């Protein structure tokens, strides 16, 4: 099972000091957080995509390209890449390039985005969001899986004799996760392609996440990818830890109360009860996180949000230390012990190449024919 | 025989409230009118006041908590809805509208709805027609023709013209007719209507 962190890249005032980091500082801080994630033994770093302040991350592959050069083992991902408003050709090119730079340590999570004006800013119509996700992803797959592409759709200029370069590393496209909080259609899309499904799992009650994941698993089996319990599931989560749980609550409360997304609404206690947010000791985080498995089944990836709402870098690095030293080693052991036989790990470049090779020469033959 | 589920939404703010009083009279009248038509009923009264914080939390944080989510499911699965609000500043109250804002766009499509309101003076009564009815028309609800307004004097001396009691009975009869004419409502499921992906792909 993979453990990691995901960031939304917000530049937010620290409510306890009133100080807002500069964009430049926050960007450096996020790079530090990613490098530290590897140092403490986490597996994955994922960054979001936004096109408006107070977020800085408009260009995730630039960030991840740098991180590829300064890390050794970290899996680099996104949370999410906008399949609706990005040109699928550019996604195909950017992530294939990143694959080569990172030696395959790349996957990506597609999402539709939740900022209305981004659609018109990029020449699209939000009412077409779902149709854009369907058509753009079908093209993206084709660009990666087929050497020479002839294509025509509704939302982008047609392609005749187009080859997306560089070709995916070793001829194998990066693994794709589809993220959605509330649209079963996206879970259906993930199931249809045999891709991963990621639930953000931060803003909604567990009962909702459970239904979304159940639906994805059922549809995965329906579309012929194997038993439902072997579908590839990822979850978000949000934690803040101190050794003493009362210290954690006291320290996190002002950040929670003023958080851009949910501040000035539910109390910390309400939100903790209603959503997977856990504020307390490492042991409490371990117990809560192990409980996720009770309602989504064996799953492959757990990402934590730890760096938002103006939390200072030093505090975030301390959270990473606690995750790496006390939480994740126990979670790895406990989840492994509970896991049903036959449940796969999250796909990596190596496992995808091996699976392709094990499937025989069929794929190679197709590729050669299309080159010819 | 199926039991018909009637959800009564009442947006009064005081306890006790005249809005709740009107809601209870309407609920009793609807139950009696449906019994006359051979239908069993089950009434669920939702005091929106009790969900004021849930609704505010939803506005700010964007998620339905476990107290509010079942209420929305009940409304979407109701055979009929009785909606009662106090009239504030010439329209339904903010609390009432906030609840309606949280409903799924299709939650009330085709559902028979009885509109009712209370107010400080009978001069506010047409707010039912110029504010409440268009709101429910937007939701494609099947509002019954008679909307019931209760002014302070309706609770006391014999009113001139129709009495509150007769208006309640007429509106309840209209709602009961609408319910009895329809098959029992079925629960809608977010996951039931998702098209197979091959259909989505064809766009």
Describe, in short, the structure shown:
Chain A has helices at 23-39, 60-70, 88-101, 118-121, 129-145, 184-193, 206-222, 245-257, 268-274, 282-296, 313-338, 349-358, 362-371; strands at residues 2-7, 44-47, 75-78, 81-82, 107-111, 149-151, 159-162, 175-179, 196-199, 233-235, 239-241, 278-280, 301-304. With 372 residues, chain A is of the alpha/beta class.
Task: Outline the structure in words.
The complex is a heterodimer of chains A (372) and B (203). By secondary structure, chain A is an alpha/beta fold. Helices cover 46% and strands 13% of the residues of chain A. Chain A has a nine-stranded parallel β-sheet with strand order 3-2-1-13-10-9-8-5-4, covered by helices on one side. In chain A, strands 6-7 form a two-stranded antiparallel ribbon. In chain A, strands 11-12 form a two-stranded parallel sheet. With 203 residues, chain B is of the alpha/beta class. Chain B has helices spanning 18-36, 52-61, 69-76, 94-102, 127-138, 164-180, 197-201, and strands spanning 3-10, 40-47, 80-88, 91-92, 112-118, 142-143, 148-150. In chain B, strands 1, 2, 3, 4, 5, 6 and 7 form a seven-stranded mixed β-sheet that branches. In chain B, helix 1 packs across helix 6 (164-180) and helix 2 (52-61) crosses helix 4 (94-102). Chain B is globular, with a radius of gyration of 18 Å. The mean pLDDT of chain B is 93. At the A-B interface, helix 5, helix 6, helix 7 and helix 9 of A face helix 2 and helix 7 of B.
């Amino acid at each position: 099972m993979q453990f990691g962190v995901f960031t939304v890249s917000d530049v937010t005032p620290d409510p306890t000091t009133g100080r807002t980091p500069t964009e430049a500082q926050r960007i450096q801080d996020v790079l530090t957080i990613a490098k530290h994630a590897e140092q403490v033994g986490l597996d994955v770093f994922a960054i979001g995509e936004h096109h408006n302040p107070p977020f800085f991350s408009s260009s995730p592959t630039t960030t991840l390209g740098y991180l590829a050069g300064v890390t050794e083992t970290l899996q680099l991902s996104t949370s999410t890449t906008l399949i609706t408003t990005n040109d699928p050709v550019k996604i195909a090119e950017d992530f294939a390039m990143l694959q080569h730079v990172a030696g395959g340590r790349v996957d990506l999570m597609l999402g539709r985005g939740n900022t209305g004006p981004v659609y018109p800013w990029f020449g699209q119509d939000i009412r077409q969001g779902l149709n854009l996700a369907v058509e753009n992803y079908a093209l993206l797959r084709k660009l990666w899986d087929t050497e020479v592409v002839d294509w025509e759709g509704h939302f982008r200029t047609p392609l005749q004799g187009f080859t997306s370069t560089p070709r995916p590393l070793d001829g194998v496209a990066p693994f794709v996760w589809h993220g959605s909080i509330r649209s079963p259609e996206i879970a259906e899309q993930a199931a249809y392609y045999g891709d991963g499904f990621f639930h953000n799992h931060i803003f909604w009650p567990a009962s909702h996440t459970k239904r979304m994941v159940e639906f994805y698993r059922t549809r995965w089996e329906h579309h012929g990818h194997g038993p439902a319990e072997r579908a590839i599931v990822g979850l978000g989560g949000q934690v803040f830890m101190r050794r003493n749980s009362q210290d954690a609550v006291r320290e996190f409360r002002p950040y929670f109360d003023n958080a851009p997304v949910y501040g000035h609404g539910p109390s910390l206690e309400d939100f903790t009860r209603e959503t997977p947010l856990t504020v307390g000791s490492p042991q409490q985080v371990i117990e809560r996180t192990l409980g996720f498995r009770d309602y989504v089944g064996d799953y492959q990836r757990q990402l934590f949000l730890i760096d938002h709402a103006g939390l200072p870098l030093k505090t975030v690095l301390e959270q990473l230390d606690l995750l790496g030293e006390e939480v994740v080693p126990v979670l790895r052991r406990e989840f492994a012990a509970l896991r049903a036989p036959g449940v796969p790990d999250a796909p990596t470049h190596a496992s995808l190449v091996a699976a392709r090779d094990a499937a025989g020469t069929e794929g190679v033959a197709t590729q050669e024919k299309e080159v010819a | 025989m199926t039991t018909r589920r009637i959800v009564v939404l009442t947006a009064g703010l005081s306890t006790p409230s005249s809005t709740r009083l009107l809601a209870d009279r309407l609920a009793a009248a609807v139950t009696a009118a449906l019994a006359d038509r051979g239908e069993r009923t089950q009434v669920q009264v939702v005091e929106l006041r009790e969900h004021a914080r849930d609704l505010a939390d939803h506005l700010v944080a964007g998620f339905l908590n476990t107290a509010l989510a079942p209420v929305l499911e009940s409304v979407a699965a109701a055979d009929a809805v009785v909606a009662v609000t106090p009239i504030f500043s010439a329209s339904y109250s903010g609390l009432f509208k906030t609840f309606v804002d949280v409903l799924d766009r299709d939650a009330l499509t085709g559902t028979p709805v009885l509109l009712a309101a209370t107010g400080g003076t009978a001069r506010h009564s047409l707010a039912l027609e110029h504010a409440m009815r268009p709101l429910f028309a937007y939701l494609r609800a099947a509002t019954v023709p008679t909307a019931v307004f209760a002014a302070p004097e309706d609770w006391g001396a014999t009113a001139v013209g129709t009495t509150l009691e007769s208006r309640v009975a007429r509106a309840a009869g209209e709602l009961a007719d609408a319910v009895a004419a329809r098959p029992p409502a079925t629960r809608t499921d977010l996951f039931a209507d998702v098209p197979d992906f091959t259909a989505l792909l064809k766009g």
